[in-house]
Amino acid sequence: MIPMREIYWNIPGHLFLYLLFFPFLVVWLYGIYRHTRMILMGEPAAVLGSMWDRLKGVVEDAVLQRRIAKDTLSGLLHRSISWGFAILFIATCLVALQDYLGIPTLRGSFYLYFMSLTVDLFGLVAIVGVLMALARRYGLKPDRLLLPRKAKSYDALLALLLISLVTGFLIEGLRIAATADPWGRWSPGGWLASVLFRGTEQTQQVALHQVLWWFHAAMAFTFIALLPYGVGMHVTSAAANILLKNQEGSGVLRTIDLDRAAHFGAGAIDQFTWKDLLDLEACTECGRCQQACPAWATGKPLTPKGVIIDLRDHMRLVADGDESRKMVGEVISHDVLWACTTCGACHQECPIFIEPIPKIIEMRRHLVMEEANFPETMQQALRSLEERGHPFRGTSASRTDWAKGLGVKTVAENGPPEILYWVGCAAAFDERNQQVAAAFAKLLQRAGVDFAILGEEERCTGDPARRIGNEYLFQALAKENIAILNGYGIKKIVTTCPHGFNTLKNEYPKLGGSYEVVHHTQMLADLVKEGRLRPEKPIDGVVSFHDPCYLGRHNGIYDPPRQLLGAIPGLVVKEMDRCREGAFCCGAGGGLMWFEEKIGKRVSWERTEEALALEPQVLASACPYCLIMFEDALKVKDAIGRTRPLDVAELMAQSMDM
């Protein structure tokens, strides 16, 4: 006997199903249209990168849900629901194919193995997923989850999905019981449900089957129709956002065409790009970004999730004609905007690649370039950049004072070297970081590297200006530097500053400056591997390494600093709980080096306390800003005597008895 079942058994008027679906489809389509119309309010945005890579990203992060699965419970319940829903949807479409085209999907081995066994198992998995989601919401209640005002939308969707899944199995169970289906055991969920009805009359089973069948259809259609009207919108928009995600890197900001721009930054919702607005629509409100945000963790008013949700709600009000609230200053407060360190933790954690940082920077650009309304300490730093080419007001040092007596060559005097050492403002003008520059230069000399510096010709890369919001000043500094570098024919650059590294490597190419740029930890690690540097003198004690945000998260460089520390005899490396991709910020990025934290706890204090819990003799880093922040924090914590903040290059120099 050939395995099969009758299509639409006991539903003689099943064609009415398609008429029933029509109004629900209209509601769904209107919701999609409304969201699309809102997204298209935004300005043009280029979608770069290969479509093949984008499709692979959809498979990895929308289908396999790689990022969501980093949290075991979340990954399990989301995969259970989404994969279960997807398989059930495919099965429903296959039934429609048989109904319309006569393709025998409910017959033979395919019917048993896929349409019965596989579909039932995935349906059961989906029910388990929904129950896990409800248990987490009402049992575990993680702080990072939905805001209260959004809970009802999410609860309604979960309830509708659960009802649809359960009634689906009850319908299958009634059919198996009423027909004594010999293939019923191939549908484990339906077969278990059939046990509930074995004591009832067949006429009752048939009647109840019809009622439940239409009820199930109405609930399933309602679920689909409501998806675009709450957090369920992410079912479609999240996949679209993954497909269209930024492929330039999280540390790269949008370049403004200053000659053609009608405005600078975003002072209104329609001044964001359409991709920014798609980000708003795609947000699942999972709160992973909030949980990782150093500003939120230290009592600041900034939560990346809050920024995205508040902008989304504002966008919807504006789309409906309500423009009563000013976006910058009212919807998003100034305190929120100036709390962001641009550390990239929110970008790293978001499972669907939403990027809050560019939106914050666009609003900063509006405040700085159009309203001239930003913190005084930042204004002083930018004035110093304009007047002196660096942000360190009050210093009397020159760009070459740190190199006195070291015999470091300049490009102007000796011509283009094999590699240019880009010293950076902090290493040139901050007394503490001058020691790092000297240590690194000595290491290069010991290894026989042909290097030189620009000396007085070097200017700030412009990173602080760009992150604070002054794009004009950034581009002016960048173009001046690029002209000098290109004039000398510089090909390769090494720098001790991750912020300069990120800017030179990722942002200068758009302005005509393309170079091979390496961080000093990468170069030193290579020199050790090649045997040109041999750290031999033991340094006894515990060291904990802090991952600089613009080296780690924004550029994916984690191993070279650790390889160097591991090569030094005697050192015992202890990792902080928050390390590598999950590292906690020092608090200096995003221009906050020149900002006084007046709300909550200092970010640097939080990070330093985490390090001190390991009782290290050395708190190591590979960034001048991190070093400055830790020097200050260790003094405040009265720990400078027992824990020394050192750059990895300084430890290398000590181990080589330099």
UniProtKB/TrEMBL annotation:
GO terms, molecular function: 4 iron, 4 sulfur cluster binding; metal ion binding; oxidoreductase activity
InterPro entries, A to Z: 4Fe4S_Fe-S-bd (IPR017896), 4Fe4S_Fe_S_CS (IPR017900), Cys_rich_dom (IPR004017), HdrC_iron-sulfur_subunit (IPR051460), Helical_ferredxn (IPR009051), NarG-like_domain (IPR023234), NarG-like_sf (IPR036197)
Parts of the chain that traverse the membrane: 15-33, 76-98, 110-135, 156-178, 211-231
Domain 4Fe-4S ferredoxin-type: 274-303, 330-359
Keywords of this entry: 4Fe-4S, Cell membrane, Iron, Iron-sulfur, Membrane, Metal-binding, Oxidoreductase, Transmembrane, Transmembrane helix
GO CC list: plasma membrane
Protein's UniProt name: Iron-sulfur-binding reductase
Organism listed in the record: Candidatus Methylomirabilis limnetica
